From TrEMBL:
Record-linked Pfam families: Lipase_GDSL
Swiss-Prot/TrEMBL GO biological process terms: lipid catabolic process
Keywords, in A-Z order: Hydrolase, Lipid degradation, Lipid metabolism, Secreted, Signal
Protein name: GDSL esterase/lipase
Cell compartment(s), UniProt: Secreted
GO cellular component, as recorded: extracellular region
């Protein structure tokens, strides 16, 4: 299916919130929502399918430097998170942008052939993440009753890639489902694609996404990780925190 932008997703949530209030009553609905877990992951596609699109993005990058593009993203994101809070979201996990320069797609179209991650996309992600962490800290301190949590997926996935063998993987740079390219990143996974023999041994399922095996490890570290992975508390602590 097509992608739904974050504003539209929040619009859908606002409608469901109104429906809950109609069905359950305002007090019960607000109580349920303020105790619920909200997870927000945004940013990767804004880079991969916008600022970093081959050829088509060149004119935009010529007039919009990386800092300006990222600042615009952060300003909009801050407004969206505040809107969620005003709609009774209180326990909010904000997931940062992973090392997008390491996905097979960007390895294939942006690296020089040495096999390393593409440097520029990772620099964009790191700059975005630094600003995002500051926003999460600011909102957590300034919005009464809120618990904003910052999940550092960039750190987690970077660790899986750098130490893939110790995590049970055999391949950290290429897609299990592939069509073409040195890293299998030149085309999306589809019915005519070829497949690896054992997807559980690959960090990446396709040109863009981690495998199920990698996602299990990522989810585990978000759920129960230490403050280096997710802070100020992990998801399990957040769920059972009545503060």
């Amino acid at each position: 299916g097509g992608r739904i932008n974050l504003d539209a997703q929040i619009d859908n949530y606002a409608k469901n919130r109104r429906d809950m209030m109609t069905q359950r009553g305002e007090v019960a609905a607000v109580s349920r929502l303020r105790g619920a877990l909200f997870s927000v992951t945004m940013g990767s596609n804004d880079f991969i399918n916008n600022y970093l699109v081959p050829v088509l993005s060149v004119p935009e990058r010529a007039v919009t430097p990386p800092e300006a593009f990222i600042n615009g993203m952060i300003a909009k994101y801050r407004q969206q998170l505040i809107r969620l809070y005003l709609l009774d979201a209180r326990k909010i996990v904000v997931v940062n942008v992973g090392p997008i320069g390491c996905i097979p797609y960007l390895r294939d179209i942006m690296t020089t052939g040495a096999g390393a991650c593409a440097e520029f996309p990772n620099q964009l992600a790191q700059s975005f993440n630094r600003k995002l962490r500051a926003v999460v800290t600011e909102l957590g301190a300034g919005l009464g009753g809120s618990r904003f949590v910052y999940a550092d997926v960039y750190r987690i996935v970077s660790d899986l890639i750098a130490n893939y063998k110790s995590h049970g993987f055999e391949v950290a740079d290429s897609a299990c489902c592939y069509v073409g390219g040195r890293f299998g990143g030149l085309a999306p996974c589809g019915p005519t694609s070829s497949y690896c023999a054992d997807r559980s041994k690959y960090v990446f399922w396709d040109a863009y996404h981690p495998s199920d095996a990698a996602n299990v490890l990522i989810a585990s570290r978000i759920l129960d990780g230490d403050p280096a992975d997710i802070s100020p508390v992990n998801v399990r602590q957040l769920l059972f925190d009545d503060a």
